[in-house]
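Section 5.1 Outputs to date
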Amino acid sequence: MFTGIVETMGTLVSKTDVGGDRRLVFDTGSLSLDGCSTGDSISVSGACLTMLDPGERRFSADVSTETLSLTILGSLKENDPVNLELAMGVNDRMGGHLVTGHVDGLARLVSRREDGRAERFEFEVPDDLARYVARKGSACLDGVSLTVNDVRGRKFSVCLIPHTMEITTLGRLAPGAHVNLEVDLNARYLQRLMIPDFNDDTERTA
């Protein structure tokens, strides 16, 4: 489990295809992995990965074909930056919101404009995910916990303060770019609870 409070930006060092899957190696930059072990979880731009052979500031991870096809991890190139967050501890502060690292889909940046000292980013989401995005609710974009400011159909906007744009990859985005989207955890369960007959294999939408 994560909070969506990015600890640092890392970098993809290398990628190797292995039997249809892909092994990625990351440099964690200023984030120390002291105390981490193989099998620990880490959020890489919002996708929960299992660390393999973590060193002082480097680890590898095996990424399945499904994850490669559903997230931005499949399009990463060597030296591309990523947002990193270690799994939260029991006594950690909850600075953002509960984030699982299970990416629901991709959101596309439509536009960005100045809004005081911040910038307002507008994203567009697929039809099947739009229902889970609510004004003043939470959304996780590339591993960053953000408050939704406004919703119009399939589009929603968030405000990024200078600090967030500086320490995460979001500040580097240009219109047309895609980001990993994880909708609010509670919204998923509410939608499931609204399915009236659990004996029917046909999933109904709210």
